[in-house]
Automatic annotation (TrEMBL):
<comment type="function">
    <text>Required for nuclear movement. May interact between microtubules and nuclei and/or may be involved in the generation of force used to move nuclei during interphase.</text>
</comment>
<feature type="region of interest" description="Disordered">
    <location>
        <begin position="1"/>
        <end position="31"/>
    </location>
</feature>
<dbReference type="Pfam" id="PF04969">
    <property type="entry name" value="CS"/>
</dbReference>
<dbReference type="GO" id="GO:0005737">
    <property type="term" value="C:cytoplasm"/>
</dbReference>
<feature type="domain" description="CS">
    <location>
        <begin position="29"/>
        <end position="117"/>
    </location>
</feature>
<dbReference type="GO" id="GO:0006457">
    <property type="term" value="P:protein folding"/>
</dbReference>
<dbReference type="InterPro" id="IPR007052">
    <property type="entry name" value="CS_dom"/>
</dbReference>
<keyword id="KW-0963">Cytoplasm</keyword>
<dbReference type="InterPro" id="IPR037898">
    <property type="entry name" value="NudC_fam"/>
</dbReference>
<protein>
    <recommendedName>
        <fullName>Nuclear movement protein nudC</fullName>
    </recommendedName>
</protein>
<feature type="compositionally biased region" description="Basic and acidic residues">
    <location>
        <begin position="1"/>
        <end position="29"/>
    </location>
</feature>
<dbReference type="InterPro" id="IPR008978">
    <property type="entry name" value="HSP20-like_chaperone"/>
</dbReference>
<dbReference type="GO" id="GO:0051082">
    <property type="term" value="F:unfolded protein binding"/>
</dbReference>
Length: 190
């Protein structure tokens, strides 16, 4: 469904669509051989492994655009191209309690990932609600964009014009003031 089609749905239809999408995403993510969560700057992956597994029993490759985890001599548990680039030097992996591998990937860019590996199911990043995030943690450009999106969303919910619509009205008002001889009574802003 395109964003335009989604915007045409009634609030009830949007709620139903969102619930269906979340349920589908949850099923798809649960079928993966790992769990993952993310923040703007990092991705945390937890891979279950047989109890008693040690680091020396594993082959783990963390590259700028690729991730591979396997028990030595076995097929990979996960193997593929990362959806975005990572900072290899700042990414780590550890074996915890000899039953899970914890992989922490540092993102090159602070952005939400749709998936970890490109061939795995995607999540809808527009529905992400960051936990305990602060606008002050973001760089200036990203912060400005998020604040604008938050303002526009609030304006839409109140049935008021968005920031872009307000700019158009302001430009028209300035033009009207500069040209009082013109009739603007039938002007529509699109």
């Amino acid at each position: 469904m395109t964003p335009e089609e989604y915007d045409k749905l009634s609030p009830e239809e949007r709620d139903l669509k969102d619930k269906e999408d979340r349920a589908r995403e949850k099923r798809e993510q649960a079928a993966l051989p790992y769990t993952w969560k993310q923040q703007l700057g990092e991705v945390d992956i937890v891979v279950p492994i047989p109890k008693g597994t040690r680091a020396r029993d594993l082959t783990v490759k963390v590259l700028k655009k690729k991730l591979s985890v396997a028990l030595k001599g076995k097929d990979p548990i996960l193997d593929g191209e990362l959806c975005k680039d990572i900072k290899v030097e700042e990414s780590t992996w550890t074996v915890e309690d000899q039953e899970i591998i914890h992989i922490q990937l540092e993102k090159v860019n602070q952005e939400w990932w749709e998936n970890v590996l490109t061939h795995h199911p995607k999540i809808d990043t527009t529905k992400i609600v960051p936990e305990n995030s602060k606008l002050s943690d973001l760089d200036g450009e990203t912060r400005g964009m998020v604040e604008k999106m938050m303002f526009d969303n609030q304006q839409k919910q109140l049935g008021k014009p968005t920031s872009d619509e307000l700019k158009k009205h302001e430009a028209l008002a300035k033009f009207q003031a500069a040209h009082p001889e013109l009739d603007f009574s039938n002007v529509k802003i699109t």
